[in-house]
Amino acid sequence: GEDVEQSLFLSVREGDSSVINCTYTDSSSTYLYWYKQEPGAGLQLLTYIFSNMDMKQDQRLTVLLNKKDKHLSLRIADTQTGDSAIYFCAEKKNGGFKTIFGAGTRLFVKA
Amino acid sequence: DVKVTQSSRYLVKRTGEKVFLECVQDMDHENMFWYRQDPGLGLRLIYFSYDVKMKEKGDIPEGYSVSREKKERFSLILESASTNQTSMYLCASSFGQLYSNQPQHFGDGTRLSIL
C-alpha cells in the first residue's frame, strides 16, 4: 500500500526531548521528509534524508532511519513551547512523482 | 528562501459560485501542486503541473480544474462551489524533474468556506 503511518498525538514537558515516529512503505530506495505545520499555516520543510543514510543531525533536530523496520524518527532536543505544532512525515519513492504524507503527529509542549 | 504565496488566507464563497485560488512561487520551480487538507484525512493531492500549460490529475480532481499559463503561477478553480469543498487548500512547488528528490515547499494555505 501507500500508507505512511504516524501516531496522532505526543505530549512532552518543556526542556525534555520529543521523539516523533513514522513508518513508511518502501525500504529499497526512497526519500523521506519531515514537515512542521503551525496553527493556521502551511507546511514548513524541516529536514529530509535519503534511504542510504542512517542519521542526519541539524541543530536540535536528529533524524534516525531504520531501513530494516522501515521506521523513521524525528528527535527534537530541549523541546520548547514554540515547537508545539503538527509534524508530518512524508515519503517519495525513487523514480516516482508522488509524495505520500502521513496524517501528522500533533505535539503538545507543556510549560 | 523559497517563497510560495497564496493570494488569500481566508475566503468565504456561496454554493454555485466559481472560485479561483491563486498561487505564485518566486524560485522558478518547474513543478507545482494543489492539495486539500481535512481533519483526519491528511493531505490529498488534487492536481499538479510539471511545466507551463501541463497539468495532471491527482487523487481527488473531481469538481476542480487548474490553470498554469505562466511558470510562476498555478491557479485552482472550483467551477461550481459546493459545501463539501469547504477545506484548507495548500499550494506547493518543487525544483527540477518531477521524479527527483527535491522536496516540496508550501504556501501558508487558504481556508475556504462555502456557505
The pLDDT mean of chain B sits at 94
Subunit organisation of the chains = heterodimer
Instruction: Give me the secondary-structure category of chain B.
Output: mainly beta
Q: Quick one: overall form of chain B? A: globular
Q: pLDDT below 50 for ≥5 consecutive residues: which ranges of chain B?
A: none
Portion of residues within helices of chain B = under 10%
Please compute the radius of gyration of chain A using only Cα atoms.
13 Å
- H/E topology pattern of chain B: EEEEEEEEEEE
For the biggest sheet of chain A, the summary is: 6 strands, mixed
Task: Tell how many strands the DSSP assignment of chain B holds.
Answer: 11
- Shape descriptor of chain A reads globular
Determine the N-to-C terminus distance of chain B.
Answer: 37 Å
Please, could you describe this protein's structure?
The complex is a heterodimer of chains A (111) and B (115). With 111 residues, chain A is an all-beta fold. Helices cover 0% and strands 57% of the residues of chain A. Chain A is globular. In chain B, β4 and β5 form a beta hairpin. The model of chain B has no long low-confidence stretch (mean pLDDT 94). Classes of the chains: A mainly beta (111), B mainly beta (115).
